[in-house]
Amino acid sequence: MILAVIAGMKNIIKISAAVIALSAAQFIPVHAETRTTEVTRTDASGTTTTTTTKEISTADRDTIRTYVKKNKAKLPKGFVRTTTYDERFPSTWREKVIVGETFPETYYSYGTIVTADELGLPAQPEKTTLFALDGSIIRVDSTSHKVLDVYSLD
After folding, report:
1. Is 55 helix (H, G, I), strand (E, B) or coil?
2. How many CB atoms lie within 10 A of CB 31?
3. What's the predicted TM-score (pTM) here?
4. pLDDT band at 71 (very low <50, low <70, confident <90, very high)
5. What is the tens place of the pLDDT at every residue in 54-67?
6. In this predicted model, what pLDDT tens digit does every residue of 95-108 receive, in sequence order?
7. What CA–CA distance (Å, rounded) separates 135 from 150?
8. Strands 136-141 and 128-133
9. In whole angstroms, how far apart are CA 54 and each of 17, 25, 26, 70, 129?
10. Where are the alpha helices (DSSP H) in 57-115?
11. Strands, E, within 4-153: which ranges?
């Protein structure tokens, strides 16, 4: 009986420590994380490794928001939230578009690929695509189709 009480108290202490640690932690929103990818290329001169930041920078976010405000009347599909969802594109699509996961192929027909030039952005990281979908800008890796960043225009 006494051993069971001691074991229970140990669990309470562990849980209390976890709660204290969580309350002291600083939570950083997903869009504020720095995501980098190392790209290794082998050519005749040897192997080169470069690190590329794949997040949509704060300056790029400001530029995109300015573009949306200036062109509100003639924005292409994907920049404005839709009110028509269906089985292939449900209203819960954001739950399936997760940084680091593969972008669902069926969603491509519901948005627009946007170039950096259209938005007035500087050159974007190599082999990445910006995609406007239901009021969000999503950066996708062009080769693996992994979601690199999601920026909501709301």
Report:
1. coil
2. 14
3. 0.61
4. confident
5. 678 888 888 888 88
6. 888 888 999 988 88
7. 10
8. antiparallel
9. 35, 25, 23, 26, 11
10. 58-70
11. 36-43, 46-53, 112-114, 128-133, 136-141, 147-152
